[in-house]
Specification:
Helix content: 40-55%
Number of helices: 19
Strand content: 5-15%
Shape: globular
Distance between the termini: 49 Å
Number of strands: 11
Largest sheet: 7 strands, parallel
Radius of gyration: 29 Å
Order of helices and strands: EHEEHHHHHEHEHEEHEEEHHEHHHHHHHH
Length: 438
């Protein structure tokens, strides 16, 4: 992977995408957490999720303090006026703002999602954390061959949190990038939103939220409309509000052309989350100074500049993608080939058959009570030793000696933790040395 990146999981869909992305990285690189990839999680629902197991310190719940809720109910309060709630929040719903509205998520209500973001006690902390991460990425990008960095915001247009905060987080991110003094072209921000599809929604609110999000994006992507917001004690500068919330806005749905990704809405969204993770993975791992997807996005951006709106007046500012994968498990195949090769080499060096080796081992197992106890406790590990199934760590080394005792010692020390523990506890001579020398 050439470019450093920050992945911001916004809402439940974002968390699931990160979970799938980490699995892809584990398969490809042997670790789900490469040093140049950072994650942040922002959601109104921070209940247990596999993607959060290692990232509690990177998770920021959107919670409205109890003492603020009474102020939010009163239009004349300073909190309500600073958030300009009269311009966008429903006055009837406003009278019912309680802690239950934010318990376990905002339950698909996008106004509550935006309110949780703007009024959360964590907003300053989120902004400062974004600034630190962007500055760290800038340092990594300056020493990187590609010379740039990527920031992804992944969410769902159908959810209350994702739909309600997608635009605000994009503008806050633009404000932070400017404050970090990142040079133009060094930091690319991309907002990815999973939009609900007709016939593939579990709740009607998912379709309404998706439509509302697209309408707002259409409005604020027009250069004559300026987005205004107050993020804590800092107002969004007008020059940033004139721009689009992200460098690239990517909208995807659980339907490709006329084909659904699955018959059920839940399964279709689950597959879409995997496809989004695949897309991010390929952008992160594509070789070259600018990945193929990034080059396509920049070409489309130039086209948008040349033709800013379609025939109906809607802005040309959205991209999408389709992901098809053909994978060859080269790492697994190489690992198997290494094991088979070493297995044949060791058998050739020792000039014994597997059957003879097994019978010799069983005879010594019956004579040695301690070894028999370890055999019973760690049967599979000892079977691997007897069968000469050497692990990758041994297969990648060149054995310095081909005599039986050193080979057996290296196999046991590498293969069986229980035998290693026994040896470390003082069982280092007598029957074991006799067994190895035989």
């Amino acid at each position: 992977m050439r470019r450093p990146a920050l992945i911001i999981a916004l809402g439940g869909t974002g968390k699931e995408v990160v979970y799938n992305l980490r699995k892809r990285l584990q398969m490809a690189y042997g670790t789900p957490d490469p040093p140049n990839i950072k994650y942040l999680f922002i959601d109104t629902d921070m209940r247990d999720n596999e993607a959060l197991e290692k990232y509690r310190e990177n998770a920021y719940p959107l919670r409205v303090p109890i003492q603020k809720m009474e102020d939010l109910q009163r239009p004349e309060s300073s909190t309500s006026q600073s958030l300009k709630m009269k311009d966008w929040f429903d006055p009837i719903l406003r009278q019912n703002i309680t802690a239950q509205n934010f318990e376990g998520g905002v339950k698909g209500v996008r106004m509550m999602g935006r309110l949780a973001f703007l009024a959360t006690s964590n907003l300053r902390e989120i902004r400062e954390r974004l600034l630190r991460e962007i500055q760290a990425l800038r340092s990594d990008a300056e020493g990187n061959e590609a010379g740039s960095m990527l920031v992804f915001v992944v969410s769902s247009g159908g959810g209350g949190t994702g739909s309600g905060t997608f635009i605000d987080l994009g503008y806050l991110l633009s404000q932070v990038v400017r404050k970090a003094q990142v040079s133009s072209g060094v930091c690319e921000t991309e907002g990815i939103s999973a939009i609900a599809a007709v016939g593939l929604t579990e709740m009607p609110s998912q379709m309404r939220n998706s439509v509302a999000l697209i309408q707002e994006l259409d409005h604020f992507c027009k250069p004559e409309n300026i987005f205004q917001a107050q993020y804590g004690d800092e107002a969004l500068p007008p020059e940033i509000g004139k721009q689009t919330p992200y460098d690239f806005i990517t909208l995807v749905s659980p339907r490709q052309q006329e084909t659904n990704l699955a018959n059920s809405a839940g399964q279709a969204m689950h597959r879409l989350e995997k496809k989004i993770a695949d897309y991010v993975f390929m952008r992160l791992t594509c070789q070259g100074g600018r990945d193929a997807f990034g080059a396509r996005l920049h070409d489309m951006q130039q086209n948008f500049t040349a033709v800013p709106a379609d025939n109906l007046g809607y802005p040309n500012c959205y991209t999408t993608f389709g992901v098809g994968l053909r994978q060859f498990p080269i790492g697994l195949c190489v690992n198997v080939a290494q094991r088979q090769l070493i297995r044949k080499m060791v058998l050739s060096w020792l000039k014994v058959t597997e059957i003879n080796l097994l019978s010799i081992s069983i005879r010594y197992l019956n004579e040695d009570k301690e070894l028999r106890r370890l055999y019973d406790r760690d049967l599979q590990a000892l079977r691997d030793i007897v069968g000469l199934r050497l692990p990758h760590e041994v297969a990648s080394k060149t054995p310095r000696h081909s005599n039986t005792d050193n080979l057996y010692a290296e196999m046991i020390l590498t293969e069986s933790e229980s035998l290693v523990s026994a040896l470390q506890n003082g069982v280092r001579n007598g029957n074991y040395e006799t067994l190895f020398s035989k």
